[in-house]
Amino acid sequence: MTQNKVTPAQGKLGILVVGCGAVSTTFITGVLMARKGLTKPVGSMTQYDKIRVGRGADARYLHYADIVPLAKLDDIVFGCWDVYPQNAYQAAMYAEVLKEKDIEPVRDELEKIVPMPAAFDKNYAKRLDGDNVKCSMVRSSSAGLQGKNGQCSMPTRWQMVEMLRKDIQQFKAANDCARVVVLWAASTEIYVPVCESVHYQLSDLEAAMKADDREHVAPSMCYAYAALSEGAPFIMGAPNTTVDIPAMWQLAEQTKMPIAGKDFKTGQTLVKSGFAPIIGTRCLGLNGWFSTNILGNRDGLVLDEPANFRTKEVSKLSTLETILKPDVQPDLYGHGNDEDTQYYHKVRINYYPPRNDNKEGWDNIDIFGWMGYPMQIKINFLCRDSILAAPLCLDLCLLSDLAARAGRFGIQRFLSFFLKSPMHDYTQGEEAVNHLYQQYTMLKNAIREMGGYEPDEEID
């Protein structure tokens, strides 16, 4: 064991969440209830998982907090931004994820969490109609301060950054927080392809923000830029491009802050990243994998817009190709040596209001075995989207805060376990790790290293 160089988790940890919807309020309510001893944080790795440290007779299995200095639930303070003005209690009741009996005991605390106006561009989420948004006032010689047609106008992207930075500063001061983490748990934005002339260099991204380039700079990028500039780790819980660009990697290195993303790995992709290794390890062939979902909450509503679904589709499709590789096993996944006839992979999401947050995923997997004989696997996962996402939010926030105190900055690959489309340096030909058990090894080894222990499991 080597000396632990991680700064202790002293003082309050502010968690600022972008979005005050089903996922956010389920996360916040669960933490508030857990620290009162009224519920258990089931599903949270940081609260339940144990990791082996040492070997042989010296082996011990310890909780994360016994290896590294994690922030305690009692030290967390919550804040949020949202396009709707309802406080966290009202939003939790509206979401109908949790029963009233599981919300009422912390009603007073939830009511105090009132969303700050969101940095919002309706072109990026056309199905949302909230009016709790940031506005920029312009001066008129006849009517004083006003916007176009007498109303405030959308701020420029750079103005959004400045407003968000001020929000973070004020929240941190008002709540006496020693540290802050910013978590995106809002809706999926429309797909923003990576543009080398804007997204590869930090100076180009800043110039685009100042020029109010609304095509290449999504509102989520303003949140990320503001967070990193204010010394706060940023976590992208949706499939948005946001921090998955070299310019943001440069900013994270410049500010010495961790970034993680993208997209919470909750239901179908969690199953896929765990089940695909079974097929690969057993050397079975794959003809096709068809995945479809029905979802009725606000996330489902937003994803019903084709431009927003495209962002999610790219994220969900990326999992299989790095686990079952046609170029490595052409007989099993490439159908011989013909690269154009590799297995078929399709993902669908359908908006179905009656299910609300209770998402249902179906997977049809067509495999083949000895002498090419076909077989099928059917998986039907009736899950609760926010119930699965809430513990991921907690883990990602606590571990990102830990990484910052350990001096780890830039892309946090060890957090890939929690994410659907893990970040990686695609400019250098790096491939994302989507294999669930390899991701778990990365997670355990990072905890060991930050705790002063040697990593002892190879990733291959």
From TrEMBL:
Pfam family, one: Inos-1-P_synth
GO BP terms, alphabetized: inositol biosynthetic process; phospholipid biosynthetic process
Spans traversing the lipid bilayer: 13-34
Keyword Ribonucleoprotein: no
Keywords: Isomerase, Membrane, Transmembrane, Transmembrane helix
InterPro entries: Myo-inos-1-P_Synthase, Myo-inos-1-P_Synthase_GAPDH, NAD(P)-bd_dom_sf
EC number: 5.5.1.4
Domain (Myo-inositol-1-phosphate synthase GAPDH-like): residue spans on this chain: 267-386
GO molecular function: inositol-3-phosphate synthase activity
Entry protein name: Inositol-3-phosphate synthase
Species annotation: Xylanibacter ruminicola (strain ATCC 19189 / DSM 19721 / CIP 105475 / JCM 8958 / 23) (Prevotella ruminicola)
